[in-house]
Amino acid sequence: MTRVLMKYGGRATGLGVLAGTLISWLFFGESHGLGALLGGGVAGLDFLGLVLLVVRLLDPMMPTKSKAKLLVIIVLKLGAVGLLLFFVVTRMPVEPLGVILGVAGALGGFTLGITQAVSSAEGQAAMAEQERRIREEMGDAHPDLD
């Protein structure tokens, strides 16, 4: 499922960042466009990294200690992204509105991409395979569910 989420999420997030960047640049100017590109790029990479970490976090076979470590990594990653965005806004020749538009484009694209991933035939097949694997690993295989 991770591959499907990354494929659809990555494509749509990239398009969202591109849209936010173009809108910012065309309507507000170069520094807004650069801000949108940087803010959207940081946010987009953050969202895709979050997919990788959360998919692992939700694995029912992962030990609790490993899940606790992943949770700490997620929190530290979110803090690092916040600091990076703060650096972009305060130290780079960009406008905060552009950064906000880039982050919004990334978030919109990411949301659309994940929605497309889970509703696609490829996503449905991946989820069915994951469910089958989990049932087998948990010793709960029911022929009527396969």
Descriptors:
single chain; mainly alpha
Give the topology string: H per helix, E per strand: HHHHH
Helix content: over 70%
Largest sheet: none
Spans where pLDDT lies below 50 across 5 or more residues: none
Number of domains: 1
Give the helix/strand class: mainly alpha
Approximate shape: flat
Strand content: under 5%
Number of helices: 5
Over the alpha carbons, how many angstroms does the gyration radius reach?
19 Å
Ends apart, CA distance between termini: 18 Å
**Mean pLDDT across all amino acids:** 91
Count every beta strand, where a strand is a DSSP E run of 2 or more residues: 0
Could you explain how this protein is built, in words?
By secondary structure, the protein is mainly alpha-helical. The protein has one domain (2-145). The protein has five helices and no strands. The longest helix is centred in the N-terminal third of the chain and has 28 residues, at 30-57. It starts with a helix and ends in a 9-residue tail after the last helix.
Question: Summarize this, please?
Answer:
By secondary structure, this protein is mainly alpha-helical.
How would the blueprint of this fold be written?
Blueprint: H1 2-28, H2 30-57, H3 64-91, H4 96-119, H5 121-137
Helix pairs in contact: 1-2, 1-4, 2-3, 2-4, 4-5
